[in-house]
Design a protein that fits this description.
Layout (H helix, E strand, L loop, with lengths): L2 E12 L2 E12 L3 E5 L6 H8 L7 E6 L5 E4 L11 H5 L4 H16 L2 H14 L2 H13 L14 H14 L4 E5 L7 H13 L3 E5 L3 H7 L2 E6 L2 E5 L3 H35 L6 H18 L21 E10 L2 E10 L5 E6 L5 H8 L7 E6 L5 E4 L12 H6 L4 E3 L5 E3 H7 L16 H13 L5 E5 L7 H12 L4 E5 L3 H7 L2 E5 L5 E4 L3 H21 L22 H29 L5 H29 L3
Parallel strand pairs: 3-7, 3-8, 5-6, 6-7, 12-18, 12-19, 14-17, 17-18
Antiparallel strand pairs: 1-2, 1-4, 8-9, 10-11, 10-13, 15-16, 19-20
Length: about 625
Amino acid sequence: MISYLQVENLKKSFGDLVLFEGITFGIDKDQKVALVAKNGTGKTSLFNIIAGKDSQDTGKITFRRNIKIGFLEQNPSLNPNNSIIDEVFHASEDVKNAILEYNQAIETDNRNLLAKSMEKMDHLQAWDYEVRVKQILSRLKIDKYNQQISTLSGGEKKRVALASVLIEEPDLLLLDEPTNHLDLDMIEWLEKYLKNTRSTLLMVTHDRYFLDRVCNEIIEIDNSFIYQYKGNYTYFLKKREERLNAEEAQVEKAKNILRKEEDWMRRMPKARTTKAKYRIDNYYQLKDVAAGGRQEEEMRISVQPSRMGKKIIEIKNLNKKFKDYTILKDFTYNFTRGEKVGIVGDNGTGKSTFLNLITENISADSGTVDIGQTIVFGYYKQEGIKYKENQRVIDVVQEIAEVVTLGNGRQMGVKEFLNFFLFPYDMHYTPISKISGGEKRRLYLVTVLMRKPNFLILDEPTNDLDIMTLAVLEEYLSTFDGCVVVVSHDRFFMDQVVDHLFVFRGNGDVKDFPGDYSQYREWLTKIEKEEKKESASGIKKEPARSANSKTDSSKTKLSFKEKREYEQLEMDIANLENEKETLETEISTGSLSNDDLIQKSNRIGEIIKLLDEKSDRWLELSEFS
């Protein structure tokens, strides 16, 4: 195996807080590895050290000589004065200018400039780079190449940074939460891309489907130790459970022996023999093993929601527009007790706007939102916790309440309640600015649940939360007696929590789908296949006639020749659709040569033109079929 990265005895601390110590592992060529650990154990710090953005206290990091490294930070820092195209282009200035000139020639239909730019592209061998740039940018839904970075949202900046890293096709990819701020279509594309890429991969992600389908090894940091599992996430869960059970059995065995040895120590006379001293040394070793049992560090959520009356939220004929874009159009729905709704849709289709409408944070253009008198919202917003400078962990929760009522009716002080959420006493007076991103998210969840909500609204709750916390949150929500509305790009989380989906399809169109996300994707795939089959077989009737129809307006049926043409068109359209889909899949693998990329891209253009022509003619003939 060819070693790409070696990490040896790494230690990092901040004052008295030791993030990790003695961390040692290696990454070999072609491995796709995920790093799994609880929030606050230093995953992002470890990535920053490996990428050279931070320094370790002790230890050594060694890369294979001359390998190219790409690093996606959790919160990327981009040049605000750059345009998107400037930020993602890493090729030489000549290649960049040739590609921009070529695109300008196409957009303006300038034949002279097109001929010159194509000659430059050939000379600089820029075609494969241009195809790769466009392919990745389009998949991440980045189309305004000249837009300035300073005008982008945080999510858009993350996508630009991701595109910038992928375009370079580095030997070693370091990705810190790559799925954050991506919609579900983008995540599924990225999943396939990383699975097929020739780059070696080390990443941190909370997306468990992503882990299962992309990674072939898991590295876990637990209690400052490294554990490596040669398999995907499902394999990791199984082997981790076996490891914990074996550790617990070892500790129990040591405790049983220790009880006998403690009795011997009490009865042992002061004048001990050499043999006795050996047994004494063994006793202290045994004591260490027995004390090494895992401390109870699992997060627990047990909060009593406020009483909920019969009336929840009744929405009638709700309409909302921003300028010319419709968010909701005559939307009507009545929530019922205990229902759990997931919201999915592309970025910009109005998911967060809908949440603000039903909580009356913004006003509708028309229609009504009637909220029951007993409803208490718990609104977990995408932007996360807001805090004042130098505000401490304990200060935030004490502003809300001093006592919290648990699900069993027991009352608990806020300090003890913080411990429930893995904030130990020595952390209560830590400034919020000093804790990790995941710990801020967990603290935000504490502040939401402390208000005893019976209607939970969760807008991207999975961002930056570790997998262990997500599992506990999923369990809590599955038994939550109130209502839950959740927007999330985490497919596993949605499958575990929701009963049905509101699918935002754009331009005010919202579909209520009766199932979880995986069931929705299966249904959508089936519908797409049926639509392709219908378009090829002529099931759709009464299409709009072309103004230049070649058929006689007085005709009532097709001639024999036209019927043969109609049948041939059905087969041609189906074959072209299949060929186009195959070519798009091949291009997206990123493994084609320069010549193949150009050839297949040109062929897709030809297919699109042929499909337009044949579909128009098929529509004309179908009126009389």
